[in-house]
Amino acid sequence: MTQKSINHKFARLREESKKGVALLLDPDKVGDKTKLYSLIQTAVHHQVDFFFVGGSLLMRDLVEEVICGIKDITAEIPVLLFPGNAVQVSDKADGILFLSLISGRNPEFLIGQQVTAAPLIAQSNLEVLPTAYMLVNDGEITSVNYVSQTLPLPNHKPDLAVATALAGKYLGMQYVYLEAGSGANSPVNPEVIQSVKKATELPLIVGGGIRSVETAKAAWMAGADVVVLGNGVEKNPNLLIEVLEYANVYNLSLNVN
Ligand SMILES: CC(C)=CCC/C(C)=C/CC/C(C)=C/CC/C(C)=C/COP(=O)(O)OP(=O)(O)O
Ligand SMILES: O=P(O)(O)OC[C@@H](O)CO
Ligand SMILES: [Mg+2]
């Protein structure tokens, strides 16, 4: 993977108004390897845009095993680290979502883990994506807010989300990730997505609680460039196929028009 190719891929998706999909593989949840490989193969076959690898906790050191599992199958689809902490940095990936949890006020997740990770990243070839990571939900306790010990932004106050995202932009962050929390009951409110997109005009990743094509569509329609699928696919692998088939048909229709 050449340098800057992930940034280019995001830029192309946005310029062409295409709908992007990332599959999150959480190394903590790798059970049956045959199932994992078959899921990766399905994602490749249906042209997923990105693989995200990471988890809030990481109880087992399987990050590199998951990355290599992907790399054994494809060299074309970028693998991005989506790290819950600095221990998850690996130079076997193509890039890293360099997250700062700006919805919270815990210095460890605003700058602490980043300082620990930076020297390792400097020695690697990882493409770095500076990302304003914002947890948005109506008070549901998810792994991210428990592990980070932070309060989420309310899901029905777009103005607070906009102020936070703009602060991230003015600090130099180049991507926004709106996160309802893995396995959240309710996804990020489309009104919040739309407001953040309009105000920042930054590439927008949206995840958490996307368990149907309808929810994915609502996020895209509101301005998400990439939707992230995790728990929904773990429970129902067909969801991945349904969402990717919808995105592929939609994206192809743009080429025709
Ligand atoms: C830049 C570096 C090295 C680290 C960033 C550290 C930060 C700011 C992390 C943000 C807070 C956090 C704990 C994020 C985790 C995001 C993530 C990988 C979620 C994946 O899902 P899980 O939260 O593991 O879901 P389950 O509960 O379903 O396992
Ligand atoms: O597991 P789900 O709910 O799909 O969430 C995906 C991702 O945004 C979590 O960090
Ligand atoms: Mg996890």
TrEMBL record:
Cofactor(s) recorded for this entry are:
Mg(2+)
Residues that coordinate or bind Mg(2+): 26, 56
Q: What is its EC number?
A: 2.5.1.41
Q: Which InterPro entries match?
A: GGGP/HepGP_synthase_I, GGGP/HepGP_synthase_sf, GGGP_HepGP_synthase, GGGP_synth
So what does this thing catalyse? sn-glycerol 1-phosphate + (2E,6E,10E)-geranylgeranyl diphosphate = sn-3-O-(geranylgeranyl)glycerol 1-phosphate + diphosphate
Residues in a coiled coil are none
State any GO BP term from the record.
glycerophospholipid biosynthetic process
Keywords per UniProt: Lipid biosynthesis, Lipid metabolism, Magnesium, Metal-binding, Phospholipid biosynthesis, Phospholipid metabolism, Transferase
Q: Which GO terms describe its molecular function?
A: heptaprenylglyceryl phosphate synthase activity; magnesium ion binding; phosphoglycerol geranylgeranyltransferase activity
Question: What does UniProt give as GO cellular component?
Answer: cytoplasm
Any Pfam family matching the protein: PcrB
The residues listed in the UniProt record as binding sn-glycerol 1-phosphate, with positions renumbered to this chain, are: 177-183, 208-209, 230-231
Q: Which SUPFAM superfamilies match?
A: FMN-linked oxidoreductases
Q: Which Gene3D superfamilies match?
A: FMN-linked oxidoreductases
User: Highest taxon of the source?
Assistant: Bacteria
Job description of the protein: Prenyltransferase that catalyzes the transfer of the geranylgeranyl moiety of geranylgeranyl diphosphate (GGPP) to the C3 hydroxyl of sn-glycerol-1-phosphate (G1P).
Q: Which family does it belong to?
A: Belongs to the GGGP/HepGP synthase family. Group II subfamily.
Protein's name according to its UniProt entry? Geranylgeranylglyceryl phosphate synthase
Q: From which lineage does this chain's organism come? A: Bacteria, Pseudomonadati, Bacteroidota, Cytophagia, Cytophagales
